[in-house]
Write the structure tokens for this entry.
Amino acid sequence: MSENILLAEYEDKIAILKLNRPDVMNSFNFALLNALKKEIESIRFNAGVRVVIITGAGDKAFCSGADLKERASLSEMQVKEFIFTIRNLFTSIQFLNKPVIAAVNGIALGGGTELSLACDIRIASENASMGLTETRLAIIPGAGGTQRLPRIVGVAKAKEMIFTGKRVDAKEALQIGLVNKVCKLEELLYECKKMAFEICETGPIAIEQAKYAINFGLESDINTGLAIESNAYWVTIPTQDRLEGLQAFREKRKPVYQGK
């Protein structure tokens, strides 16, 4: 099982990463964290991958957070190492140079919700249940949840969820903007792939620069954000893809982008 703790499938220009610990609700231990870290860093420099989809094995859980059985055996220093590792991993996912879609197939609690928050887009199955439940264990979200959740659902709602440790079902997650879309469990991967293929029709450099501008612009004032956007736009101007887009428009055909 340890060798297959993370399943990676490459389909056309899409990488599908599946957390494969269904017997423990796909919870994170050190081995799974390191496997996901290695795969993400490989994808970062793989020009053949345009979009990443992250999901969990089985139909019950996306990820239930940290493996509490392993956590109980760790020293205080090892717990610090775990938090440091998972926080940096999720930050690397947030700033990956390609769009990342979370296919939330069931329970996503604690670090599971934090993983989805680090992704660009979240699509959930009807049986999804999400929440930052750490305060019920007398700790706080430690993989970015206190920072990313307020930016996505608003400060008041984030405080309510974190202070109470409450879970939200798929319907409420959609209502508060925590997920982009809800669908039947059996249609989840199809819907994620459908969106991924739509993204693959766009210009690779444009997508990379758009994500860069959004991510860093949100951390700045509006004028700095506009300057970031302007500089990101300049990067696209001398590209072959931009000229291909204009030519395809004139010729009334679909453009073929090369990422150049």
User: Anything to note?
Assistant: The chain has a mean pLDDT of 95. The first strand starts at residue 6 and ends at 11. The CA atoms of residues 4 and 20 lie 7 Å apart. DSSP finds eleven helices and ten strands in the chain.
